[in-house]
Design brief:
It contains six helices and five strands; from the N terminus they run αβαβαβαβαβα. The chain is of the alpha/beta class and about 210 residues long. The termini are far apart.
Length: about 210
């Protein structure tokens, strides 16, 4: 239960750690189900990482981030709900979409439990490939949109920083020009006073009796 025990209780810290991957993690103890889900999602063009237990799934999450997790509920040992709880305990995986695959009915209280543990969606068995593919497509598109908005936000912040830097540079140049102008005026005034003094001195030297 400590495989992903690097959670941060600070929400700001958690937000800073949120990351997104491109691959899809499929977790099911049944090889036939794994193959079927892999075939259903193949048209999405995303690499699929297969795990046959909750423990193996948590190990894969330590190695990389995922765009989506397809998680079977009924697995021996650590079931899908416990796996989801541990996934959500890790700050950087709190926003990773999870689709539960279950044989439970929609009226079952376990469905509510799944949502409380951070499920984004449920699918009941038998799973229809086209429906699973459609749901997965939605989550991936949402992720792509989120990343696009984040990139645009970064570009905007960079542009604003550059504009601010340019403004500071212009202000500094204006200040330097003003200082230089004052210095030149002071030098000109000093030269004028010096010339006036020299003129008076020369006059006095030419007229010593005065």
């Amino acid at each position: 239960s400590t495989l992903l025990d690097d959670s941060d209780d600070n929400d700001d810290g958690a937000a800073a750690l949120l990351t997104y991957g491109r691959d899809i993690l499929v977790v099911d103890d049944n090889d036939t189900n794994l193959i079927a889900i892999e075939a259903a999602l193949a048209p999405l063009g995303r690499k699929m990482v297969l795990a046959r237990s909750g423990v193996e799934a948590l190990a894969r999450l330590l190695e990389q981030d995922f765009a989506l997790i397809i998680l079977d509920v009924a697995m021996p040992g650590m079931d899908g709900f416990e796996t989801a709880r541990l996934v959500r305990s890790r700050a950087r995986n709190r926003a990773t979409p999870i689709i539960f695959i279950t044989g439970l009915s929609w009226q079952d209280e376990e469905i509510l439990k799944g949502y409380e543990l951070g499920a984004f969606d449920f699918m009941t068995k038998p799973v229809r490939p086209e429906v699973l593919r459609a749901k997965a497509t939605i989550f991936i598109q949402l992720q792509e949109r989120t990343l696009e908005l984040h990139q645009k936000g970064e570009e905007l912040r960079t542009a604003q920083a550059r504009a601010h830097e340019r403004e500071l540079t212009m202000q500094r140049k204006r200040f330097e020009a003003e200082v230089l102008e004052r210095q030149m005026k002071q030098m000109a005034d000093a030269d004028k006073r010096k010339d006036e003094f020299l003129a008076i001195l020369a006059h006095e030297l030419r007229n010593p009796l005065q």
